[in-house]
Amino acid sequence: MKQKGVLEMRLLLEPLDVLMFRSSRPFFRGEQNIAESGPISPTTFAGAIKTKLLLDYNPYPPTDWWKKSEFKKIVELIGSPEDESKISLRYVTFANLKTFEEYFPLPMDIVFSEDTAMLLKPLEDKTFALDNGLYSLISDSFYVDHKPFYLSREGLVKYLQGYVPIEKEQFFDAFQLYQHERRAGIMLNKNKKTADEGMLYSADFLRLNAQVGFVTWIDGIDNFPEECLLKIGGEGRVCSCRKLADWKPNPAKIIAEVNKSYRFKLYFATPTIFMANDNKTWWRPNIKMLEETLNAEVSLISVCLGKPVALGGWDAAKGKQKPLRKAVPAGTVYFFKLKERKKLSEDLEMPLQISDHEVKSGLGSAFIGAW
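and the corresponding structure tokens:
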């Protein structure tokens, strides 16, 4: 599955209200009283963009609208339960509304000893090999901590080139980007238009700080409005949306560093789901997909990851809940070696998309880096 194509569109989304990204675990008002937030899934943004394209086709279609050729074209573009979408959401993350700079989830192999940032690296000594055949990770300090930070664009590029970012300006605390806000709600009786007894609940919303929004990277769309409104997340809160100039990391210097040592790390900037979705092997990457993408054979050396996140949600096309699956969290880092000392192509497009589920909806956005 060799990655080809050009990044066609970069969108800036500015929330006009607080947003809700509810946990994928089922929530039943009346049986539960708190709707908790979950990880921000790229699939939410992919669904919002596809819905926008469908409504722009005709928000109030006439009789037999589904038979028209224009509708068939839009379905071919956005996909259906039977056909895969032609749209590929490559990445989504928090961004600065003034500078348009993205904030990337902190890679889990960046740790801190007090205020000093350092990198974890595999300890390639069979004495310290784990039961699964991988190697332990080691740092230059005995006491280390991983913090809920985000990396600047410059920090990401340095990290992918094999260096630890050291400037404080390249790290952003999550609280600099957003706050959690809990609000009360009550379910209404649709027939009586009155509040239902026992249906009071509270919901956890996300309030983005001033000058913070989202940026999405998308390809596969020929025409999209220069400016528009999108409904995002639970309760369909509105975001303004506009196109931005293209930006992505230049892979040449990064791949050059990788080809010097014939080893690389794979940093996942969004959650990803792998086929081996059980309690023991949910984290194991799809090696075959990666090798087809890179056109090279690889060996997995080690992995740095956190607790799994649950991804599911509502499938609007099929009208039912998606299966709840364990996902590798954003920030996870895998360490590989290239077999037969084969070099990677320096024009490899990033991010790669390595996921066994919903890969075109933004899961499995991964960047190659040196170690």
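(Above: one complete record from the training split.) The CA atoms of residues 291 and 297 lie 5 Å apart.
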